[in-house]
Amino acid sequence: xxxxxxxxxxxxxxxxxxxxEQLAAAAAREGSDGPAFVALVTRFQDRVWRVCHRLxxxxxxxxxxxxxxxxxxxxxxxxxxxxxxYSTWVHGxxxxxxxxxxxxxxxxxxxxxxxxxxxxxxxxxxxxTESPERSIDLMRMLDILDEExxxxxxxxxxxxxxxxxxxxxxxxxxxxxxxxxSRARTKLQERFPDYAFDDPNx
Length: 202
Known about the structure:
This protein is mainly alpha-helical. The chain has helices at about 1-15, 20-30, 35-55, 60-75, 85-115, 140, 145-160, 165-170, 175-190, and strands spanning about 120, 130.
């Protein structure tokens, strides 16, 4: 009994000393959700939840998305080839999972947020005017973008990913990612001219 406990403790210590890529390789060699994959879940659960929360917009959907991400990571654990950082690959899985879920739930969210949060005044011609003192939430601003452009801005500026990372996650060229980020910022600037959307990295 003691030796089994000691062996498990040694495995935990061993995995703690591995970097992400080494730990992912160990998990890929396991036949089931063994200790290496469990260690990956422990290491990445907070980061994955944070990404999902940014992309999904609320805690309940973020929790569902996070669970789905780790299911996908488990079944696809042998697909990581080391072409990028493991964290970038994980964030890519989280991104694709959240985009899929958001596309299926966007209509429900828009009904709920329009009913519960819209404080604008509707004029006779059906347009919405905003009070001068109203503070517009950034996440609400991003909702004018399509799903992928919104996600790209969040991964770029909220999560701090490079254009090389974005190219990996979105399966696009680096130049295409730069163009889409620039286009999304321009769209936001045109819609909300009183706010600055300059690229801090330019």
